[in-house]
Every structure is written in C-alpha cells, then in structure tokens.
C-alpha cells in the first residue's frame, strides 16, 4: 500500500508553479501513484465588469472564461509533467473559488492525498501578503502538504537525502514514521535530527534510529544545541527534503515564538513535507 493515494499539485501557470508541477511529478512517479494538476478559478459575473452598456458588448459565455482559462492552465501543467514522466497517470481538476480554499476543499475529497504547492510567498518578504496561498494552505490543510522551493531550476530526480526533525513526542514520532515511509518508497536515505541536551537527545535519537532501521532505510543521526528552528533551517540546506510535523502550524500556536514548524516553513531552503499530526 502506498504512502498516499495520489499527489495533487496546484498551479497558476507561472514559471515557479511549473517547477512545483515537475517536483510533484517526480514524487508521484517515485511513489508510483496518480497525480492531479489542479487550477482554481473564480467565476466571472457580468455585473462585475462595468456598466450595462459594457456588459451588452460581452459574449454570452463570459461567465465561463475563468473555467476555460483554468482548464488550459491545468493542461499546460499536465504537459510539463508528462514531458518528464511520459507514463505518469495524470488528470486535471478545476475547483471553483478562492485558490487556497478551493485547493484545500478539493484535496479533502481525495482521501489520503498529498498536496504539493510552490513556496513562493512563504519567505520573509511575502509572509504578510493578504491572500498568500501557500501560507494559508500550510496553516489550514487537513492532510500532508509538501512545499516546493521554486526559486531555482533542478534535476527531475526524486529526493535522495531526507532530513527528519524530531523531539521524541508522539506527534513528532508520527511525522517520523511518515517521513520513513516516504523515504523508503523513494529509495532515499534518512538523517534524524534533534535539538537538545545530550542525555535526552541520545535516547530520542536511539529510538528514532531503531524505527528507521526497522524499515530497512539507511539512517544517520545528528544532535545539536541551540534554537531548533534555526538549526533545522541551516542543516536542511544539505538535504533534498525536510520532514516535520505540523504541531504549531494551526490555531493560536502558530503565533507563539517557539512554533518551530511555522518558523521553519518561512525560512527553509529545502523542500518541506509538513505531516498532519494534530
């Protein structure tokens, strides 16, 4: 049984979204599961386009323009994915509504799907933009989300080096197990990292390492001192994928200074898999 039932990737047709589509295709091909390219749209109402004299000049099917454009954008995404992976099982979806809300609601209907989004707007400069789609999705998703760093081109290779952060808690262990399953399916190696005092950290890493080894996945461990979020951001630079639980991403917790996943999501340079653990 696969880790996920399918991969859903959102695209708006931009260059950076195209990079997210390619990364999603890489993951879907590696996990050998179907992929859906989704483009949300807002239905255009004639009364929003000017006075009645202007509306009279509009084509009768003006209300469908948003849908038609979304279909074309999604199909362009399919072409990008199939160029890299011709045998990929792929489909399109055009949910209607606010982009973030529409993607979230559509993903909810697809069972245990992985939602993949580009990370443009999650950096410090875009953090407080109204309607920031990636930011809204990472805080409200009901399932796992992969945030793809789209600021640069990359090879169409599946992640080979996976970093998993843990503090030994039940929620972190759930994220660890999900990260192990993904790494195993992709043929990747795992490094488990924890931040804290040496005695406690040794026990946490020993238990985590045993879980990874039991899955037959190559494992290394790292123990660090300092600020957990800062350490994870720095160390993730050497990896293809960072895996964290979402504890602290939702509700009031995300505004706390110590919300590690939230802080990491805005600064990490690697792709980030946020596992739904709460």
UniProtKB/TrEMBL annotation:
<protein>
    <submittedName>
        <fullName>Universal stress protein</fullName>
    </submittedName>
</protein>
<dbReference type="Pfam" id="PF00582">
    <property type="entry name" value="Usp"/>
</dbReference>
<feature type="domain" description="UspA">
    <location>
        <begin position="4"/>
        <end position="149"/>
    </location>
</feature>
<comment type="similarity">
    <text>Belongs to the universal stress protein A family.</text>
</comment>
<dbReference type="InterPro" id="IPR006016">
    <property type="entry name" value="UspA"/>
</dbReference>
<dbReference type="InterPro" id="IPR006015">
    <property type="entry name" value="Universal_stress_UspA"/>
</dbReference>
<dbReference type="InterPro" id="IPR014729">
    <property type="entry name" value="Rossmann-like_a/b/a_fold"/>
</dbReference>
<feature type="domain" description="UspA">
    <location>
        <begin position="160"/>
        <end position="195"/>
    </location>
</feature>
<feature type="domain" description="UspA">
    <location>
        <begin position="208"/>
        <end position="276"/>
    </location>
</feature>
């Amino acid at each position: 049984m696969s880790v996920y039932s399918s991969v859903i990737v959102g695209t708006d047709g931009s260059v950076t979204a195209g990079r997210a589509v390619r990364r999603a295709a890489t993951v879907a091909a590696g996990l050998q599961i179907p992929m859906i390219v989704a483009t949300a749209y807002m239905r255009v109402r004639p009364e929003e386009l000017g006075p009645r004299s202007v509306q009279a000049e509009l084509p009768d099917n003006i209300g469908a323009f948003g849908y038609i454009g979304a279909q074309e954008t999604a199909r362009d995404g399919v072409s990008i994915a199939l160029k890299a992976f011709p045998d990929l099982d792929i489909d399109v979806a055009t949910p209607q509504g606010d982009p973030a809300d529409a993607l979230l609601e559509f993903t909810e209907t697809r069972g245990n799907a992985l939602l993949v989004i580009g990370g443009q707007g999650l950096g410090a400069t875009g953090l407080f933009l109204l309607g920031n789609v990636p930011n809204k999705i990472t805080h409200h998703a009901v399932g796992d989300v992969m945030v793809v760093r789209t600021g640069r081109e990359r090879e169409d290779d599946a992640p080979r080096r996976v970093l998993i952060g843990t503090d030994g808690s039940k929620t972190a262990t759930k994220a660890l197990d999900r990260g192990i399953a993904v790494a195993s399916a992709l043929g990747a190696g795992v490094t488990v990292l924890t931040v804290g005092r040496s005695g406690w950290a040794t026990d946490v890493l020993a238990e985590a390492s045993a879980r990874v080894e039991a899955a037959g996945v190559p494992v290394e461990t790292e123990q660090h001192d300092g600020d957990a979020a800062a350490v994870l951001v720095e160390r993730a630079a050497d990896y293809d994928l960072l895996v964290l639980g979402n504890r602290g991403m939702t509700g009031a917790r995300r505004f706390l200074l110590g919300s590690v996943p939230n802080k990491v999501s805005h600064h990490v340079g690697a792709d980030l898999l946020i596992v739904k653990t709460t």
